[in-house]
Design brief:
Length: about 325
Amino acid sequence: MKRILCLLLALGLCLLRVPSVRAETEQVPQAVEQVRQSLVHLYGIGTDSETGQRSRWTGTGFAVGIAGEDSDIFLTNWHVATGSGKYADDQVELWLLKDDAKFGPDQRPLTGCAVKCRVLITTDGYPDVAVIQALAPVSGCKALPLLSSRRVADGTTVYALGFPGLKAIQNSGPEDAAINRGQVQDHLIMTRAGGSQAVIHSAAIEHGFSGGPLVDERGVVVAQNAYGFEQDVSTDLFCAVYIDYGMKLLDQLNISYTIADGPSWITVLMANLLHMPDISPILAAILFALALALVLGFILYFIKTAKQAQAELRQWLARRREKKEDAHED
């Protein structure tokens, strides 16, 4: 057994891939740059039906559907699509802004500067996800592939993408979308956010990023940007809700989408346990099998020991009965 164990460990070390050290100035992968073409700059106006007071906001959305094909369906945040639910549905207007959009005195985009869109479905609050549709063709906006957030290991390099907020509302071209790099730090259930499952990461989310994608180095969406923490908790970590919520909404609407290939749950499990996001699938499988063998061995050893103890107890009780019987006969 010792020789087998040593052999397995040696084989594992041979298969181990040591993660390379990445400089913060490293060039953004081309696949991530290409994601910019799938983003839309969202602009909303809400009117209070009682006071008539109007407010406006911006956010980001990204195309979903069959990867690589033009799409008029987008995922964004519920609070972007509805103005955080502060207004009646018929008092909310939402547009996809075109680059260099111009606005009238009523703060609405001028004709030809934006595409009106409608809300198809939302989560009605947390986990803060919505599906919207453009009411006119949006050419060149390619759908992105999606990968369940459960299959993203801690330590994975990720990129948050989004458009600037109201301060740069006219900057709506693909080149205006910012890209911030970081790493997945953890997977948490956010009790103060309706029990939403979220990926905690260090790719900075700026004003206007709400609803935008969190992608891996292949340009695959692994979560959806939502919010940051309060300042007394962290200013360096951010929350992206599981993309699984958006996938569920798309399923409810019978909208087809592309699911990207990803690591197995065994690989993710071992990567998280060992803090090695670049662990090879073969090594992960070997280590998992080894750990399973050790657990089974312990269980079998415990069962064997318990049976021996039970047998010894029976023998002791039998000897005691014999002594009592001998004493009784005397």
